Amino acid sequence: MADRTTAGRLTDALVSVLAGVAATAGSFALAGWSRDAFVVAPIDARIVSATPGPVVAFAIEEFGTAGHVLHITLALAVVVGGLGLATAAALAVSRRAGGPPLALALSGLFIFAGLYLPTGALQPAILGTVSAMVVVGVYAAALDPRLRADTDEYMPDDAARRQTLGLALGTVAYAGVGAALGSRQESVDPTEPLDAAQRRVAEDRIADADALSFESGNLGGMVTPNADFYETDIATFDPDVEPSAWELQVTGSVEETVSMDYYDLTGMAPEHRFVTLRCVGEDLNGHKLDNALWTGVPIAEFLDRAGPSPDCGCVKVYAADDYYQVFPLEVMETAFLAYGMNGQRLPASHGKPARLLVPGHWGEINVKWVTEIELIDEQQQGYWEERGWHGTGPVNTVAKLYDEGISVHDDGRVELVGHAYAGLRGIDRVEVSTDGGDSWTDAELSEPLPDEDVWRMYRYEFQGDGEHELVVRATDGTGALQPEEQASPYPNGASGWVSKTIDV
Ligand SMILES: Nc1nc2c(c(=O)[nH]1)N[C@H]1C(S)=C(S)[C@@H](COP(=O)(O)O)O[C@H]1N2
Ligand SMILES: [Mo]
């Protein structure tokens, strides 16, 4: 057999990549951004869990949420590349013997295996395989009759180039259609209200809380709407846990393993609590601080039923996305198992069907999609602690000052509105400086919410004149002033005073 020409090899390589793109787009068209059925998802999850802690910390600090784009792009490249290699192998084998029919059969087989094995999702794998085989089929039949083993002269003429270009454009167009179809699958967290009676109680409490808000432009008030509530996830794809299939177990050092399902949970007398969450990974003046009214039940009584007897007094809580956290059993005394958020059923992105809310800790301890609570005898590290973070424990005190909270009126009056949070310690005071910290004045504070782990809002007005360096700082309920010294989020959470310069 003659050696292949460079152009022939390049065309094979291009067609292999195109087949990989078509296969991935086919999988996406049917599955959408589904954690289980879209072929990129399991690869992405593996990349995320294999990334070393310092790299994750670096990406979070440098890129914030945009860091997700990096690993998703890498996962896409790995999937398209892998499926492309499978196609290239099929082409290479069929060139030696078999020709186009074998090329089609083998590429179909390899691509199907590449799509099906990581996901187990039959229909998206079949659609992806068919998409890829169309590419290979068109190539084998129309573009490259020399796929037959005995001839191998690539046609270097314009016609061949045009055909190849046509195939490439066709694949890109197909991938575009697949992407459009797939993103329609993405459910924008359909809202599902709580039962009427509960919803009414929740809505009344939300209205009461809203009435305490200080308003300012687009700045949120006392209660963050579900769609605006920040999200921090280890997985790119939310686990899809059907309430009817959900079960929460208490295991480990217990007298007896106990479990509850969704009907047990929602059958108990519900409570409604405001709880504010803050992510340890957020920037000092970042936006990963929000407050909602959660509906659920205290978890202590359920744990007691299991008769816990762990030596170290720790729990390890597991979730459907393979997340886990370890913290002292004693905080479960006041922890809450929530299935409602602001009068709606818990959205998928916030832990549907149920999540933990653990007062006095950073956001990471509030495990979403919770499945198991294991009582353990030896201290262990949680998911983020293994990666170097210290998110178990009380939050740092912070007073925020967002651009949306600054209004400059025509007459030079400047109004500042913001949120301050110190976990269970509560907020007793917020002070504002308009001269870079030389002098301080107390801001007005919103009436406190009746619950204990919540933020407060502040408002301050002054007559502006020229340039002002604004600085805000809070004092918590123990009388401790928010530390001035700046620290970046890793590993203990950001600290320091937020400042901002304005020109009036
Ligand atoms: N199962 C699970 N629970 C989780 C996480 C996660 O990735 N998986 N992220 C944690 C982190 S780091 C934070 S800050 C909060 C954020 O909750 P939210 O996404 O509802 O705002 O959830 C915590 N619970
Ligand atoms: Mo977090």
UniProtKB/TrEMBL annotation:
Instruction: Give every Moybdenum cofactor oxidoreductase dimerisation domain span.
Output: 405-486
Membrane spanning residue stretches: 12-33, 72-94, 101-119, 125-143, 164-182
Short name of any one Pfam family annotated for the protein? Oxidored_molyb
Residue ranges annotated for the Oxidoreductase molybdopterin-binding domain, each copy included:
239-384
Protein keywords: Membrane, Transmembrane, Transmembrane helix
Q: Which GO terms describe its biological process?
A: sulfur compound metabolic process
Q: Which SUPFAM superfamilies match?
A: E set domains, Oxidoreductase molybdopterin-binding domain
State the Gene Ontology terms under molecular function. heme binding; molybdenum ion binding; molybdopterin cofactor binding; sulfite oxidase activity
Protein name (record)? DMSO/TMAO reductase YedYZ, molybdopterin-dependent catalytic subunit
Q: Which organism is it from?
A: Haloarchaeobius iranensis
